[in-house]
């Protein structure tokens, strides 16, 4: 890059500072306040005696952990939900998943839309909504419609699963409670279960798995994608052809590519292991379902301890990547991963701008994606090192558990209840960071100091 | 960043292509040819019957593995050297360490100096040598002087250790052979031993450890640092004050900061473990020596299996970072790590240019450092996943072994001889990549395709 280029970069500072203020600091505070408030309320509600079954084990740590896990829709738990909570308790959990999963997703999307408008640059218009619609009331209206749609999806899921569960449960009330909880848990990608053993009872029921996967994908694909699909469906007849945004294309493509790659890799790694002796359709559904669920849902049709170390490491990577931004998922997010990979390929081919789907990616976004990846790797690595010092469990189960918390996935090799108080708090922090998004953290750490005005000479160094 | 900025980036392509050709492709071919040639020769020489003790176990795989390990100065081994090689064999190994460690370091530095001159930009002048001196004969002369200096250091080390070892070995010949091998093994950061148990016999001999650490640091600090120190000493009297290059400052500072941090962390992690009940000076030397050796040397004063999982994970990180560029070490290199960290801090503080030691880092170098880190993380992660599928050893020993190979460190939890043929070949490849440097690989993968001339509109996406 030339001298003039860096000169340009230097001149950008005022814009940058404006962005820092407008985009991140205030929304971040709102999000964090909302998060801690709901965790507090849920912890208190779950601690009410009416929420629990007679004689169930319970501690303040359990209350805080399960509240944090449900508001972050992670699904890790220190107790067996089916043996701990009353029907009232289960409804409190359903409430927590809604305010956690859908609430945070909505707030995120809201700020994203507002930010897109306030900056006022046409090329930064992130979602293909009418400019007219983007006044505050139009925005609230848009989000409300989508919220209704999600609740409708959850209701349909509950109805379908509830009716179908009458094959499994004699009491229709029990069947519909199970169906409702399963539907909400899948749609919000929470991954909690009240069966006592996740979806293992349905390991051979492809219908339940199919419905669950649809609900999981609808939750994990991201709110912005929803708004565009809605627009696409409603505005199909108008003269100007609707175009999906670059964001929607990248996140959706990445989501489904990873889904397919995950299925193939899990199948290959377990072909001679867990899947040996199983029919092709069993093997296919085991691989597909686990690939789908490992991105942020955390529901399982098998026991993680039956899988090989390499499969568990691979699954940890899937959880680390996570779901789409502004969805109910966590991790570094699909777009971060996509930009990381695109950056590498373009760099290797000697290109300095990243082009994909006939669009050029903004350089700032590429840098951002690299920052997110680095911070996530540092966070992940140091968490594993620290927990392996404090916890008396196997290394692989820690590697898996940390990825599960950061990716707000909730799958576990079963160590969660055995962790120390310190270990549980570390997971609570990881779930929080994974859910809120790692980039937001960078911005609260950043001071608003003005950089020195004088310039230093440039000098090169040898790398790698 | 603005439109104009990316415009600038686009215009840079011709320069970039020139660089690709001049800097990386040709030197890379030379390096790789040299590497494979020396590995082949060493493997053949080691396979001569005269190189081995009567009746020692030996296979073609051992020959290739130990040749690759010695040319890459890694020090991982599939056999016990002290029980396998004759005195002739030990001298062949010493030869291999010289052509591997010092040879590759020299070639690297040579191309770096030539590159610095050919580009002809004053601001890219990497080393503070006279322009006059940078004709080919001056260059060869400079490198030759430094080579002599290194061999002198090795000789002094051999003499000091050999004389001192007369306390340990009755036969003076044995003492001096041990001294010579130890000196070369330390200076080239190879980490091989012919004691049969590394430096564990000297775990309480602080003199041996001190001398060894000095030799290790002299090898790992990097050839370019040497040329500058030499210049600093010889040209001290001239009118213009000598200034160390930014590269030398960054790599030396990073090297020593990591040395101190490593000592403190190892001490803290093992305070209640391996070090409990040991005196302060024992604890200090155990921590300091392992911190020094974990960067690329691989000599040990303790058994890795006595350490806790968290310490081993931390040490794996040190090995992954490795030593200085153009040194006898491997890994992602100190400068890569330094630029990664500086990038994060500057980004968090909202700055777009990285300033350190009163100089501004070139944007290209920052991007390069991020590419190296990402590739290394991908290489590291996928190697661990693959080996955990193919090898029947513990996960932690694989994590450690992969870091050790990539960082050309050579410390091991003892699994090397037990690996499958596939596993051994993977380590050979990792040692090769670690030694040659990961960035070089990117450039052979890169095609010389001209990027399309038309432009796409820019569009932003949500990250993280
Ligand atoms: K989840
Ligand atoms: K070594």
From TrEMBL, chains A, B:
<feature type="transmembrane region" description="Helical">
    <location>
        <begin position="312"/>
        <end position="345"/>
    </location>
</feature>
<feature type="transmembrane region" description="Helical">
    <location>
        <begin position="246"/>
        <end position="269"/>
    </location>
</feature>
<keyword id="KW-0813">Transport</keyword>
<dbReference type="InterPro" id="IPR003445">
    <property type="entry name" value="Cat_transpt"/>
</dbReference>
<keyword id="KW-1003">Cell membrane</keyword>
<protein>
    <submittedName>
        <fullName>Ktr system potassium uptake protein D</fullName>
    </submittedName>
</protein>
<keyword id="KW-0472">Membrane</keyword>
<keyword id="KW-0406">Ion transport</keyword>
<feature type="transmembrane region" description="Helical">
    <location>
        <begin position="425"/>
        <end position="445"/>
    </location>
</feature>
<feature type="transmembrane region" description="Helical">
    <location>
        <begin position="206"/>
        <end position="226"/>
    </location>
</feature>
<feature type="transmembrane region" description="Helical">
    <location>
        <begin position="32"/>
        <end position="51"/>
    </location>
</feature>
<keyword id="KW-0812">Transmembrane</keyword>
<dbReference type="Pfam" id="PF02386">
    <property type="entry name" value="TrkH"/>
</dbReference>
<feature type="transmembrane region" description="Helical">
    <location>
        <begin position="146"/>
        <end position="166"/>
    </location>
</feature>
<feature type="transmembrane region" description="Helical">
    <location>
        <begin position="90"/>
        <end position="115"/>
    </location>
</feature>
<feature type="transmembrane region" description="Helical">
    <location>
        <begin position="393"/>
        <end position="413"/>
    </location>
</feature>
<feature type="transmembrane region" description="Helical">
    <location>
        <begin position="366"/>
        <end position="387"/>
    </location>
</feature>
<keyword id="KW-1133">Transmembrane helix</keyword>
């Amino acid at each position: 890059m030339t001298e003039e280029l860096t000169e340009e970069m230097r001149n950008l500072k005022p814009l940058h500072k404006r962005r820092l203020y407008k985009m991140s600091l205030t929304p971040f505070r709102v999000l964090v306040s909302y998060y801690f408030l709901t965790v507090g309320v849920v912890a208190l509600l779950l601690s009410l005696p009416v929420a629990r079954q007679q004689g169930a084990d319970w501690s303040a740590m359990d209350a805080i952990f399960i509240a944090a896990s449900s508001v972050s829709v992670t699904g890790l738990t220190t107790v067996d939900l089916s043996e701990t909570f009353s029907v009232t308790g289960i409804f409190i959990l359903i409430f927590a998943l809604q305010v956690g999963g859908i609430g945070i997703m909505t707030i995120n999307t809201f700020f994203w839309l507002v930010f897109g408008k306030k900056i006022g640059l046409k090329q930064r218009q992130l979602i293909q909504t009418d400019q007219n619609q983007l006044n505050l009331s139009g925005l609230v209206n848009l989000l409300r419609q989508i919220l209704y749609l999600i609740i409708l999806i959850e209701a349909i899921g509950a109805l379908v699963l509830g009716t179908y569960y009458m094959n499994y449960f004699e009491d229709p009330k029990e069947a519909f409670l199970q169906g409702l909880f399963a539907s909400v848990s899948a749609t919000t990608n929470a991954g909690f279960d009240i069966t006592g053993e996740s979806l293992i009872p349905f390991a051979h029921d492809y219908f339940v798995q199919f419905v669950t996967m649809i609900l999981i994908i609808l939750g994990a694909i991201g709110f912005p994608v929803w708004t565009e699909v809605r627009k696409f469906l409603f505005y199909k007849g108008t003269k100007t052809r609707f175009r999906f945004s670059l964001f929607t294309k990248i996140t959706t493509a990445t989501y489904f590519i990873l889904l397919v790659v995950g299925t193939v890799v899990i199948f290959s790694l377990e072909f001679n292991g867990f899947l040996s002796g199983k029919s092709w359709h069993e093997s296919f559904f085991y691989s597909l379902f686990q690939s789908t669920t490992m991105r942020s849902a955390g529901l399982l049709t098998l026991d993680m301890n039956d899988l090989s170390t390499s499969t568990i490491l691979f699954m940890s990577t899937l959880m680390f990547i996570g779901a789409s931004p502004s969805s109910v998922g966590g991790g570094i997010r699909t777009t971060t991963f996509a930009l990381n990979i695109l950056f590498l390929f373009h760099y290797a081919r000697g290109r300095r701008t990243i082009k994909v789907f006939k669009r050029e990616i903004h350089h700032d976004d590429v840098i951002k994606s690299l920052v997110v990846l680095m911070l996530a790797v540092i966070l992940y690595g140091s968490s594993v090192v620290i927990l392996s010092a404090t916890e008396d469990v196997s290394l692989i189960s820690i590697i898996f558990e940390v990825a599960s918390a950061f990716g707000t996935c909730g799958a576990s090799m079963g160590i969660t209840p055995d962790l120390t108080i310190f270990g549980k708090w570390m997971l609570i922090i990881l779930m929080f960071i994974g859910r809120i998004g790692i980039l937001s953290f960078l911005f609260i750490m950043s001071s608003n100091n003005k950089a020195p005005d004088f310039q230093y000479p440039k000098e090169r160094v040898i790398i790698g």
